[in-house]
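idk why but the lab printer keeps eating my pages so im just putting this in chat instead. protein + adenosine-5'-triphosphate:
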Amino acid sequence: MEKLVSLCKRRGFMFQSSEIYGGINGFWDYGPLGVELKRNIKDAWWKDMVTGHDDIGQLPGAPSPYEMTGLDCTIIMHPQVWKCSGHYDLFHDYMVDCRESKKRYRHDQIQGRWVEAKGKKIFATAGSDSESPEADIERQALKFFGMRSKNADELKWDGALVSLTTVEDFDQVLGPDAKTLGTLTPPREFNLMFKTTIGALGGEADAAFLRPETAQGIFVNFKNVVDSSRVRVPFGIAQVGKSFRNEITPRNFTFRSREFEQMEIEFFCHPDSSPEWYKYWRDRRYQWYLEMGLDEKKLILREHHAEELAHYSTGTADIEYAFPFLPEGEYGELEGIAHRGDFDLRSHMEGKLDPATNPMTVELNEEGKPKHRGSGKDLSYRDDLSGERFIPHVIEPSAGADRATLAFLCEAYTEDEQPDDKGKMQTRVVMKLHPRIAPIKAAIFPLVKKDGMPEMAQDIYRTLKKSWNVFYDEKGAVGRRYRRQDEAGTPFCITVDGDSLKDQTVTIRHRDTLDQWRVKADDLTDELRKLIG
Ligand code: ATP
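predcted complex ->
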């Protein structure tokens, strides 16, 4: 992972935001190569899910043909949206602060063990960033009791590793980075939505939030889309855009950031066929990551157990990837696919529903009135063929563009041994990105900077540039030019040499296999189109 992080910075895939001022935790910038990579991923997703989708044919595994359309809505929305969606009430974590170390932790992520020595019993802890909590806790306990590690067997452990949430009295708790007992504050609520104010006065009545997900913009526009386009259920609305969450512990590079991009679909279908549609989307989305180059051995589809599901949902699955920063056997979420029933549309219609009720009713306040009032707009759908009116059920495939980018980067990073210009074996770093998402599709080199080779190579460059992001390089030994493109993930290098001027052919070199073959310069666009796909 360290090698990848350093390559990302060195080659301009990613930088820490505001780095010259020391950076800002949880925010990342994409450099010249990174911006192309991430854009290609979003474009591939949009093309495969929306614009390239066949609205009239029936795809394998789909219960019927369906339509797809898109939307782009604002980041700041009416505050009532977040009240009815449930984010306002529920989107929080409990935090504890340490008065001694001044650090803040998520309450449920502190782990610890009860341990006794020298007639005193304490709860020694480790934070969520600890890779080996048991060892760290032992070290912490030894230090606290002033004991040496050779006397570790004098520590009397009481029970296994448990969360801090099991401990009621914090007086005996030794915080993960503290030297004295009882420095942790009681857990406090911490809303993950970024708050802002609208207008000049800036009172509480003008408070608004940066969206923590793109999905709600789709729900509140459901009626607009149905009324303005000719879509019929089943159909999906897709949106790609920024989301913001004031994450407590942003970490693992871009995996958990405070500003990130989502690629979400809300798929509206008849309640009776929604379980089939759920299965379709779950499998389709898993397959997409494989097609884009993730290794099947590192990608899992994790179905949530029945007891983890809301009662109105018939299924939720996470697509998870074995990121290299995670311990062996652990996976991180790339995308969640959820069957959401009619929870969202009804909440925006009638008022926030209480998910604990079955059948669901609107959550009431102490006065018996809706806690969060809905829009009062009719968000039901009338099927003009059958005449039936119903509230569609929703399947939500919700992916993160930054997590996908990170997964593709992790998957692509490869080191192999290749001969250099003098035939000596050298370690080569190569980013084996799928050609569709590679930032640069091809690099064009004149073998040497004379004899008309640069002119011919520049002509080729200008022709190809009309179709793709290609790169021209005439500086240095050709072997070094290849290596630089390997690190950037460029799948094809095109070289103009002495023969090119005679027979108008050029060499194409394949990044992964290192195969080289000659093609007519005039056929390059067609040849690359076939290769890139
Ligand atoms: P997690 O459990 O990892 O916090 P989540 O279940 O809260 O994720 P969702 O609300 O389902 O995530 O969001 C859908 C997708 O958005 C996730 O699968 C992920 O790809 C992306 N995502 C969510 N939070 C972040 C974040 N803080 N940084 C980057 N991507 C994120």
